[in-house]
Specification:
The protein is α/β, with parallel strands linked by helices. The chain is built from eleven helices and eight strands. Strand 5, helix 9 and strand 6 form a beta-alpha-beta unit. The protein starts with about 25 loop residues before the first helix and ends with a helix.
């Protein structure tokens, strides 16, 4: 899809020889007439994707006309408000007495296991009891890594031998959580490419097993995405959503928002809520996602 408002003779972001894009420059060098063109280029440079960028610019064009905006700072504020409003409601944090099981999904390298440790620390520090389920039984190292995190955080880890049925681990984890009155059960799953059908079938089985306890425990599927891979996240979100459903997203490796615009594409295409962002190796490096803060960070870049 072509982005409206683009001049045909203007370089695309991939052709830009500068060291990066800057929204701040729009305050100083862009005329109001060229603002839409510059804004579109910046959205693409931030990896928003053509469809999301086009939708945002259409909304901005309407807002400029409706509110009779006549200067670049006002238009930038309007753009920021549009981006902030693109994301569905914020995370409904689990509460004591209403147990939940979170199935953590994602491909290899996205940072699932370390994200689980951060989630455990996050909720434990807020007074919830937590248990981990090591359902990545394909790699002994994955179970060992989760066990190490569990020991550091004083969080129990339910595990079985390497090669065990992951659904069996989930069953044991949920049963143990209910017996101990645990508030939140977080399940680690094997990293899988979203196009491997037999692995996706296994994930479907994991969800079915956890749903056997739906009268006593709410299941939520959390998809972990790597911010550094940009638009490749779109296909991942699409397949996981179609096969098992996705209730929320955790975006890792957010040290920079240079390619953080991929969240705009995901929101525009699937209307999926982003629950958390994470960066760094410490267990405290996790934040509840805020659409407003995200928009401010993206536009102030």
């Amino acid at each position: 899809m072509n982005i409206p408002f683009f001049s045909k003779n203007r370089n695309r972001p991939s052709e830009d020889k500068s060291t990066g894009f800057s929204w701040k420059k729009l305050f100083f060098r862009a005329s109001f007439e060229s603002f839409m063109d510059e804004a579109g280029q910046n959205l693409l440079a931030a990896d928003a994707g053509p469809e999301a960028a086009a939708a945002i610019l259409e909304q901005l064009k309407f807002r400029i006309k409706e509110q009779k905006l006549r200067d670049v700072p006002a238009a930038l504020l309007g753009l920021q408000n549009i981006i902030a409003g693109m994301f569905p409601g914020e995370l409904a944090v689990p509460v004591k007495g209403h147990p939940e099981v979170w199935i953590v999904l994602g491909v290899n390298g996205a940072g699932k296991t370390s994200s689980i440790a951060k989630l455990g620390n996050f909720f434990q520090s807020r007074g919830l009891s937590v248990i981990f389920g090591a359902a990545d039984t394909f790699r002994a190292a994955a179970t060992e890594q989760l066990a190490i995190w569990g020991e550091r955080l004083n969080i129990p880890v339910i595990k079985q031998q390497e090669g065990a049925d992951p659904a069996s681990v989930v069953f044991d984890s949920v049963q143990s959580a209910l017996a101990r009155n645990i508030d939140l059960t977080i399940i680690d799953t094997a990293g899988r490419l979203q196009n491997k059908d037999h692995l996706m079938q296994q994930l479907e089985k994991i969800c079915r097993i956890s749903d056997r306890f739906s009268d006593r425990m709410t299941r939520r599927n959390l998809l972990v995405l790597d911010a550094t891979i940009g638009q490749n996240n779109i296909e991942q979100a699409k397949i996981f959503r179609e096969r098992v459903g996705v209730h929320g997203i955790l975006l890792t490796k957010t040290d920079t928002l240079a390619r953080g615009g991929t969240l705009l594409s995901i929101s525009q295409a699937f209307n999926l809520p982003v629950w958390f962002t994470a960066c760094g190796e410490k267990t405290g490096d996790l934040k509840i996602f805020s659409g407003r803060e995200y928009a401010e960070s993206l536009i102030s870049g």
